[in-house]
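User: Can you predict the 3D structure for this chain?
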Amino acid sequence: MGGWRNAVQEAAASKPLFLTIYTTIIVGIVATSFYVFSAIYSPSASTSTQSISTSWLSSPPLSQNGGSNFSNNISQPTDKASQPGSNQLKTRWEAPPSNSKMPPLESFKLTKELVGERAKDNVIIVTFGNFAFMDFILTWVKHLTNLDVSNLLVGAMDTKLLEALYWKGVPVFDMGSHMSTIDVGWGSPTFHKMGREKVLLINAILPFGYELLMCDTDMVWLKDPLPYLAQYPDADILTSSDQVVPTVVDDRLADWKQVGAAYNIGIFHWRPTEPAIKLAKEWKDMLLADDKIWDQNGFNELARKQTGPAVDDDSGLFYAFDGTLKLGILPESIFCSGHTYFVQAMYEQLRLEPYALHTTFQYGGTEGKRHRLREAMVFYDPPVYYDAPGGFLSFKPSIPKSLLLDGEHNLESHFSLINYQMKQIRSALAIASLLNRTLVMPPLWCRLDRLWFSHPGVLEGSMTRQPFLCPLDHVFEVNVMLKDLPEEEFGPAINIREYSFLNNPLLPQQVKESWLDVQLCQEGTEDCHASSNTSRPGLLRFPKNSTEEMTREEKFRNRMKRYVGIWCCVENHTPGHIYYDMYWDEKPGWKPAPPQTPDEDHPPF
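Assistant: Here is the predicted structure, written as structure tokens:
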């Protein structure tokens, strides 16, 4: 095996400078095309890019502006514009001079004066987090900056983040939380502490007399929300929700009588009114009295103490909480959850422009949230992300129409479609490992939705189309794929990129245009050998059996088995989940079925 790996890697490292590999590989009876893109290019060359449209069922980015990661020039707004034809977005913040000293920590204290300096039209937009979420925070700031929104503040829960944001020029204040700088994980005690920090922050800012648009760091703004929020001046609170069934088909507030899902506190707008301040205080007292209450559940419990009547006939506002608080629910189609955006593409079907995207309804932890935003091409990564050592490999899967469209949408047809794609992806991962290249994952098609609970395939009343382009974390364990697994047990790491990677305006044009066609061939046929020599200009051929050997290699198998997750969940059965199996084709008669006994309830390894 090592000989094959060395020979193939030698071939992959050959000229031309910009290397792309196009491969035809037979997977069962399927012809699949592979492409490898080199990331070796001259740093002095132009990096202009062009926009490429995405699939009709995808959720394309709302902004096609080019740009690198958040530069060091990110506290004073400027009108400096980017150079014509460059890949840099307009600069809106300027970093402190590099030879200056860091101000004392006390100067970053949250005060009414600090908020007043940043507020515009009496509104301040706030998010907060620790250093583990710095890339999310920079993405959040960058989107608002690109929308010409500068009345923002970021709360730092650790001094490492505070210092990093200060030196990038991002308006930051110290929350005095002294939290860990690592990712705390959803549902952990530290996670719940972060929720309480949000409540304390709301209670600290509202008495200053400013309107507060509070945001989680795992959301991005796609359109300036302030004009929309200003349309409802009588609202004490406007909140997003987890509603997945549309209640309106335009940009009005959601119909509160039809919203059965939880109010989601990842995006909500507070006015400094007496009812809002009263709710904030009761919410704080509730959470401080019982550390087991989740902050969002606490808010919902209080807000829903009374629901209705309507404030008037037209606004969509209604009385809630104690009967005096005027509450509005932001429309689910344009203040998008992870479901209404990535699964339903509700805004797209209703021909609306979304304001916000919140990475809820996903299954891969923080890594899954980041990957979702990358799939939508709304996450800002550093240039090195687009310049992977060894280059990239991409393939275009060939899916029979019968698997995608024919027959009923049920467990059998869903798993047949997924397994077909999974087998091709397994081969692609083997090739990527052999060539030491980063695999650009293909678009993934699903017939059935994935949730945390039993359902009939898709949620009744939702706008989910079947089939639909599903997020990678619906099938694959994105957090595991991006994790550093011990090489002695799982072999060398195989890096991945999101399916939309090659369409991203931030990808250098040289990478897009640089390729070498490669064919996997049968050993013994003409010009079929692992070598740096091309059989004809622009074509490289090497033996297919090297890939087949790789898929049987023990460490590779160990890695692959952990790359896939579960589908959830069948009705009237406990447990209702079904494990995906990367090597389903090695098990004659394999059928999708939930575990029948506790002993069967484990992944296929």
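The first strand starts at residue 21 and ends at 27. The chain has two domains: 105-350, 390-519+541-600.
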